Amino acid sequence: MDQTRLDFDVTAATTAPARPTALSVSDLTERIRSLIEPELVDVWVEGEVSNLTIAASGHWYLSLKDEKAAIRAVVWKGQARLIRFRPKDGMKVVARGSLRVYAPKGEYQISVEMLEPLGKGSLQQAFEELKDKLQKEGLFDTARKRPLPMLPRRIGVITSPTGAVIRDILRVLGRRFANIEILIYPARVQGSEAAPEIVAGLTALGGLPGIDVVIVARGGGSLEDLWPFNEEIVARALAACPIPTISAVGHETDFTIADFVADVRAPTPSAAAEIVIKAKADLAAHLDGLGRHLLAAMQLRMARLRARVQTATQHRVFAAERGRVMSYAQRVDELARRADTALLRRRERGHDAWRRLGERLEAFRWDRQIASHRERVGRYADRLQALLRAGIDARRGAFSRLAGKIDSLSPLAVLGRGYALIWSERNGRLVRDPAEVAIGDQLRLRVSGGELGARVTSKETTKEKP
User: Fold this and answer.
1) Fewer Cβ in 10 A, N or C end of the chain?
2) Within-domain flag for 436
3) Within a domain: residue 380?
4) Helix H segments across 95-244?
């Protein structure tokens, strides 16, 4: 039995066919490539991102996995530029591409041509990522928003020159303020070339002198249509613009990154034109209202000042001085009356003397005594005039001295020479001695031009010399 089996084995060995030629690893890999790649040129794969690596060349390397398996994927640099969001490890995505065999490692991988977050569009994901980034940088802060000028002289508008938006803006501005100057910078507002043109418009208008506000506007549309206003370069150009900006993009329900960065967001382009400038009639009414408020404020202030002056003049110090001044004024009036009476009497006596002289001339022959009498009359007249002048000068001197004394005794004149009246706020009394106040007491000083408030920080008693 053992011999028979041996014979069988020998016979089998001698009659077995020759071994086929072995394939090289490269050949086998190439055969696998030729079988797999033509069949899987357009595949959709859903999975979770893991092991994401972004090479210095710009290519993305990652793995897509689920609970049971994983497959490697690569996003080439040219395709990565078209993907508007940045994937992260753990993110659910949907990838579209073709299956490729990577020969150096004997691995198969997906060459990704399109990548979208699962459950959310790539544009929406990119919008939220950029919004979060710029918000962290402070570009949305209210503190950096600039107010719009009340009455701009020149308005810059960046929009398509052929669309309905510019016609709406011009119509509203013309209705509200016909002589406003408008400078239009034509730019695409849709497509891949729109964002650079919008940035160029902001740079150009921001460098022109005399531009007071810039409006960036376009009509409504889908998220793809409005995407130029979600570009980072547009957002940073708005933030860097030295002129206040208004974003008027889309309809009232549309929001773009430009809306958050601009100084003012208008729900529509027409609303932007209404926001940027008020109607001329509204401005005139506003100015009239300001004038009325100013007049009322001035009248109120004058009434308050008048009440303060009246209150100050009713103080007992001024009342006593006022009585003294009135007494001196009455004395001056009395002296003036006495001076007038004396002058009148002297004039009457002169007239009497003149009359008596005339009578004496009548009693004698005038042709012999006329010369001597004329001489005497001249002397009397000179003496009378001299006496009158001396009396008037004396009365004037006395009057001036009395007026000077009255002026020197006036408390207002004393205050005008740099002195002050000091009251203690604690008891309302005049302060005549440092001992009457304490350190820290509040004082009220009456000077020539008004009143001052003060606080005692130190005090020193002046000792009189023996």
Assistant:
1) C
2) yes
3) yes
4) 122-137, 164-176, 194-206, 232-240
